[in-house]
Specification:
209 residues, alpha/beta, Glutaredoxin, six-stranded mixed β-sheet, 23% helix, globular
Length: 209
């Protein structure tokens, strides 16, 4: 059962996927018999590529591809955790230096790989300068789920502000209902059966006033 396969966010957040870099036109080769004249206009300077958009959780049924790592700030991560999708969102907080995370994430991916209607997002709490290391980590562990690298001065403090009751340890996996309300939480070793059970439970109706 796919744990959290790629679920495309239909909100204002862009769809996660490989962000194609703009291809700049190559300069034309020099003419064999002609030289540039003084009146020739200077060659235009291409504009710099636009910044990559923040990731969206994976969507079920999407083809497998290498994990895409996007840098996000605290506000962007808050928008992702609000879960604008129509189904449950599984969010796994990790860091490349966390040995239990390295063991758990491939298993998490295997579990969500067949869970219908479930979105998945991995959140890296590595230091801001460790983007290349996060990318290598994804490749080395065969991760194909979208990764949001939280690039702030203090990732631990930022995530504590965003996740009520943050345990100040990883790995942490939370299951969020549409709108961001927490449905389940797993701290430390992942319990696959309990996770799958949490994914199959229907959203609780709002409490009566």
């Amino acid at each position: 059962m796919p744990f959290l396969r790629r679920v495309l966010l239909t909100s204002a957040l862009p769809i996660l996927g490989a962000v194609a870099a703009p291809s700049w036109a190559a300069s034309p080769p020099d003419a064999q018999a002609s030289a540039p004249t003084a009146s020739s206009p200077p060659a235009p300077v291409p504009a710099p590529p636009a910044a990559s958009p923040p990731p969206a959780p994976s969507a079920p049924g999407a083809p497998s591809a290498a994990s895409t790592v996007h840098s996000v700030d605290e506000a962007q991560l808050a928008s992702l955790l609000a879960n604008p999708t129509a189904g449950p969102l599984v969010v796994a907080f990790f860091a490349t230096w966390c040995a239990p995370c390295a063991r758990e994430l491939p298993e998490l991916q295997r579990l969500v790989d067949g869970a219908p209607g479930v979105s998945t997002l991995l959140v890296s709490l590595d230091d801001a300068k460790e983007g290349p290391r996060v990318e290598r980590f994804a490749v080395e562990h065969g991760l194909t789920l979208p990764i949001a690298h939280l690039v702030v001065a203090d990732p631990g403090a930022a995530v504590a502000r965003l996740v009520p009751g943050w345990p100040d340890r990883i790995p942490v996996v939370v299951v969020l209902n549409p709108g961001g309300a927490e449905r389940a939480r797993f701290v430390g070793a992942l319990r696959g059966v309990e996770l799958l059970t949490a994914l199959t439970v229907r959203d609780s109706p709002p409490a009566s006033p």
